[in-house]
Amino acid sequence: MPNNRFYKRWAEAFQISKEVIIERQVILQLAHAETDRKYHRVRYELEEMKKKLATTSPNTNDYVLYQKEVTYLQQCLDGWQQTLDHIAIWQKELDGNGAR
């Protein structure tokens, strides 16, 4: 039969693991807030660039530059969305571990 020392060590380890999970949840919340801010900023810039592209003549140098910028911003937006998706997955995993 396990002695009191075993139970004490198990309780200490459990408390430490809960603290680590809470710290990671806080870090993910901060990462989510910052990523969400950047996502919305890039989305706004993309919308503005698409407006410029729509009002520019297709046979100009500006049109080519705007088109490249739209492509770049779309890739950035996709990257930020992927980061938000991964953060959501990690938060669910942590929530699952915290519920144990």
At a glance:
This protein has 100 residues and is mostly helical. It is built from two helices and no strands.
How are the SSEs ordered, and which strands pair?
Elements: H1 4-54, H2 61-98
Helix pairs in contact: 1-2
Largest sheet: none
Global geometry:
rod-shaped
Distance between the termini: 24 Å
Radius of gyration: 23 Å
Low-confidence stretches: none
- How much helical structure, as a percent, in the residues? over 70%
Structural class: mainly alpha
Counting DSSP E segments of at least 2 residues, the number of strands comes to 0
Mean pLDDT: 89
Determine the strand fraction and express it as a percent band.
Answer: under 5%
Q: Please, could you describe this protein's structure?
A:
The mean pLDDT is 89. The protein has two helices and no strands. It has helices at residues 4-54, 61-98. Helix 1 packs antiparallel against helix 2. The two termini are 24 Å apart. Helix content is 89%, strand content 0%. It is mainly alpha-helical and 100 residues long.
Name the features.
100 residues; mainly alpha; 2 helices
